[in-house]
Amino acid sequence: MTSWPIPQPMQTALDAAREAANAGEVPVGAVIVKGGEIVAIAANATRSPPDPTGHAEMRAIRMAAEKLGDDRLTGCDLYVTLEPCAMCAGAIAHARIARLYYGASDAKGGGVEHGARVFEQEQCMHAPEVYSGMGEEEAAELLRGFFRERR
User: Fold this and answer.
1) Active site residue 129
2) Residue 2 has pLDDT above 80, yes or no
């Protein structure tokens, strides 16, 4: 098995995930890139302030939309450390994200390769190109370590 270098946007997402863990949040980080430039970096923030929609992807999409002045993030790439849930996959489709790169799969809560498989539904108006497994080992270890400490 060949180990490929992790691109800088995914490294930045992993750094954001580490910051989330240090803040007591589930360690997930997300980065949005357009034209080779990072336009948003976010980490999970569901506990403080309490916000069940404070997933890293949702926060990054909000930040990118504000920065770019558009609700359509056409031409943008999203790098996230964990397979997006159904809520986040729906937001990715609505934002018209071009490409989704994610690290660890999420058999319990994922909505891309697992669970709802949002992008495969007939009702889904836009499906990004999806690339999984980028930085998977690092992302999975962050999650395992986080939950191991809490048991």
Assistant:
1) no
2) no
